[in-house]
């Protein structure tokens, strides 16, 4: 039997998972990497540390499965998306730390760019609002700090990539990005699916440093090192990979991934759909020799990271999984509301000036109420995005497929069904990000014949249905919106 591997280069760790033809997990290996916070609002990673960890994960997963690289039909890659790496073409060494998608150092630059044309200045071309989230402004910021870096990039000495580009280059020597990741840079034209000269000029990014844009499912080259001879045959940004792994292949299919942040995506078909409600228009995926499939996305910056904050900063819990047990001990939040705008608010608000609040505190509130409020914070943020998505798409969701680490919390999933007033379905294989990358690679080499074969693999594990009254739901949503209003204008604009 042959297998498919997927590398998941995430925000806090890197993993390699080996899958069998049924899409079931055979083996997993994982390594965490450092989170570097040199200043308030700055978040960095060491790209070389990540590359070494990825190699270790691949070896570890193969060892656990008692397989050799020759037992793999292909490998796919999925990644934290907007994180930026620049490296020297000749030496292969990064020229500095990777700037992570959560980083807000570009806030002043983004404000200056928005002064001419507003936050939606480039939205008609790239589908994205001006925000610290995306890759292009990060590259511009690096050039503003070091003009010689811009010169070297213009001369082709410095290469740019998001994490999948960095890993593909390390594995194959080819400088490639897939269309889903390229659509998150603020440098790609959604309609032409190519780098856009007007965007490159506005952001001051030279074309010479950019990777070639390729479909999400295609053989890019053969791997080296622990993947010697294995076709590297698929790449998808992590949230698009989850959309693909959840087999959301038809317009109207939706999924939400709950991780460090949470991301709700809705398949909108072969035509980009502009958003009037604060969402992102993005490429969902592209199969070889096919047109791109587009999606609407609502990106939420802090969900699982809030649970980590309760654990690491407040010491309210010992393990992240303890939040469920603590939240179960109370029937509600006691009136407390947490809005975790640690790095501003993403969709549908896009307010970099916001900062987190805990509102509604009284002497009655205990740590159990705060634990439940932390879970509700995720659910209400998803509700805001779902409302915006329904307004943009014009079609309400019938159900929500969910995945990611936080879906281990059954308390969260019941709250989510309650506040959405929709069924919430968790699949049997919750590693859908890796599964989507594996599916893309497997399709490219014929390991799976078509999308119908992937649909046949999808199985539900459990479903949660709404139990909350309309009155309680709307009262809770009203409290949430009042708390969100308290987060705004906290950071003074300079």
Molecular structure report:
By secondary structure, the chain is an alpha+beta fold. 35% of the residues lie in helices and 22% in strands. It contains 16 helices and 23 strands. A seven-stranded mixed beta sheet has the order 17-18-16-15-21-22-23. It has a six-stranded mixed beta sheet with strand order 3-2-1-5-14-13, sandwiched between helices. Strand 1 and strand 2 form a beta hairpin. Helix 9 (238-245) packs across helix 14 (432-445). It is globular and about 60 Å long. The N and C termini lie far apart (61 Å). The model has no long low-confidence stretch (mean pLDDT 94).
Write the layout of secondary structure elements.
Elements: E1 3-9, E2 13-19, E3 25-32, E4 44-45, H1 47-65, E5 72-79, E6 85-88, E7 98-99, H2 107-114, H3 123-126, H4 135-145, H5 147-154, E8 158-161, H6 163-172, E9 176-178, H7 179-182, E10 188-189, E11 194-195, H8 197-203, E12 212-214, E13 217-222, E14 231-237, H9 238-245, E15 254-258, E16 262-269, E17 280-285, E18 293-300, H10 304-312, H11 322-327, E19 337-339, E20 357-359, H12 367-393, E21 400-403, H13 410-420, E22 424-427, H14 432-445, H15 451-457, E23 460-464, H16 470-487
Parallel strand pairs: 1-5, 5-14, 9-12, 15-21, 21-22
Antiparallel strand pairs: 1-2, 2-3, 4-7, 6-8, 10-11, 13-14, 15-16, 16-18, 17-18, 19-20, 22-23
Condensed summary:
By secondary structure, the protein is α+β, with helices and mostly antiparallel strands. Helix content is 35%, strand content 22%. Helix 10 (304-312) packs antiparallel against helix 12 (367-393) and helix 12 crosses helix 13 (410-420).
């Amino acid at each position: 039997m042959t297998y498919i591997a997927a590398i998941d280069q995430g925000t806090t760790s890197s993993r390699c998972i080996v899958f069998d033809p049924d899409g079931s997990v055979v083996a997993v290996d994982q390594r965490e990497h450092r989170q570097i916070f040199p200043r308030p609002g700055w978040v960095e990673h060491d790209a070389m540390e990540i590359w070494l960890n990825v190699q270790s994960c691949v070896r570890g997963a193969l060892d656990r499965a008692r397989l050799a690289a020759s037992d793999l039909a292909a490998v796919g890659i999925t990644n934290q998306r907007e994180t930026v790496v620049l490296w020297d073409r000749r030496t292969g060494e990064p020229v500095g730390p990777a700037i992570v998608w959560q980083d807000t150092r570009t806030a002043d630059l983004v404000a200056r760019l928005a002064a001419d044309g507003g936050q939606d200045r480039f939205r008609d071309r790239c589908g994205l609002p001006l925000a610290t989230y995306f890759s292009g402004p990060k590259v511009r910021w690096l050039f503003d700090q070091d003009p010689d870096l811009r010169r070297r990039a213009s001369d082709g000495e410095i290469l740019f990539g998001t994490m999948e580009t960095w890993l593909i280059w390390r594995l194959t020597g080819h400088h490639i990005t897939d269309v889903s990741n390229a659509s998150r840079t603020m440098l790609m034209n959604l309609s032409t699916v190519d780098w856009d000269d007007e965007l490159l000029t506005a952001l001051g990014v030279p074309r010479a440093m950019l990777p070639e844009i390729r479909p999400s499912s295609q053989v890019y080259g053969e791997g080296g090192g622990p993947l010697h001879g294995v076709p590297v045959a698929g790449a998808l940004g992590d949230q698009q990979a989850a959309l693909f792994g959840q087999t959301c292949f038809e317009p109207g299919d939706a999924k939400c991934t709950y991780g460090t942040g949470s991301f709700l995506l809705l398949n909108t078909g072969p035509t980009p759909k502009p958003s009037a409600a604060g969402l992102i228009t993005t490429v969902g995926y592209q199969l070889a020799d096919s047109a791109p499939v587009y999606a609407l996305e609502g990106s939420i910056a802090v969900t699982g990271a809030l649970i980590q904050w309760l654990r690491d900063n407040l010491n309210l819990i010992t393990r992240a999984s303890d939040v469920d047990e603590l939240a179960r001990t109370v029937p509600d939040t006691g009136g407390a509301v947490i809005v975790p705008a640690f790095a501003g608010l993403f969709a549908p608000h896009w307010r970099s000036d916001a900062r987190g609040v805990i509102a509604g505190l009284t002497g009655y509130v205990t740590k159990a109420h705060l634990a439940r409020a932390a879970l509700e914070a995720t659910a209400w943020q998803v509700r805001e995005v779902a409302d915006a998505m329904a307004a943009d798409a014009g079609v309400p969701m019938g159900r929500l497929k969910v995945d990611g680490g936080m879906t281990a919390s059954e308390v969260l999933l019941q709250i989510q069904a309650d506040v959405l007033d929709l069924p919430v379905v968790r699949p049997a294989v919750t590693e859908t990000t890796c599964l989507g990358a594996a599916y893309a690679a497997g399709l490219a080499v014929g390991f799976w014949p078509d999308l119908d074969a992937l649909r046949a693999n999808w199985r539900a594990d459990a479903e949660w249905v709404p139990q909350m009254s309309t009155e309680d739901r709307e009262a809770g949503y009203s409290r949430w919106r009042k708390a969100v209003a308290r987060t705004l204008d906290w950071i003074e604009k300079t």
